[in-house]
Amino acid sequence: MTRYQIIFFILFTFSNSIIQLQSEHLKNNNCPHLFKTLSDCTCVQTNTIDCSYSTTITHLPRSWTSTNHNLTLFTQSILRFDLLHTPSITSIKTNDFQGLYNLRDLSIINTGLITIQPHAFRHLHRLHELRIELNRNLIELKSFALSDIEYVHRISLKSNSIRVIHTEVFRNTHFVDILDLSDNPLEIIESYAFNGLKSVGTLILCLLPTCPIKQIDSFAFFWISYM
Ligand SMILES: *[C@@H]1O[C@H](CO)[C@@H](O)[C@H](O)[C@H]1NC(C)=O
Would the keyword Repeat be found if you checked this record's keyword annotation (predicted)? Predict the structure, then answer.
């Protein structure tokens, strides 16, 4: 072979293996085919659903159960869910994760998130850490948005664009050790905003010198009386 033939041969072999790798990646995402909305995600790594850098995912599966398929083995195995750098996700709906009973770590970071519906994370009894960060379209926490997460230890809401925390956002979310709300343009904290957080160890609202809070309604920290 001439030198050019050799170079061409190497290039050809190399690009072929890249094409092969890509198609294998698409075929073997290992997420159950029933969940069409996860077609751009991978479930390859043990116990993780990874939707990072997906440009097509707009919502989570309507249900994690099916009458025709037994998905228990899959749903119970999932410990971690990553939604990172996914601009097409704009809302987390009520009970979106119901059925992923063993979920421990959930990250929703740098997405197009605008709305967290009431009770979005309800029934996640094993949830240990919830990270909702760098979502620049998230400007308010609606009532009950983070309610009923009974055993969670750390909730990070760092670096979103949250201006308003409405009343009873965290109702029945009992076991938070650290709640981090730093780096948000917080303006209004309504009455009973933190009601229900019975065992908060550390609550970070903002870090000096940027503390833009304008209004803290009476009883905003009502939960303190339980501590
Ligand atoms: C579904 O699968 C799980 C685990 O394999 C099993 O324990 C359970 O009995 C199955 N349920 C039904 C309804 O077949």
Answer: yes
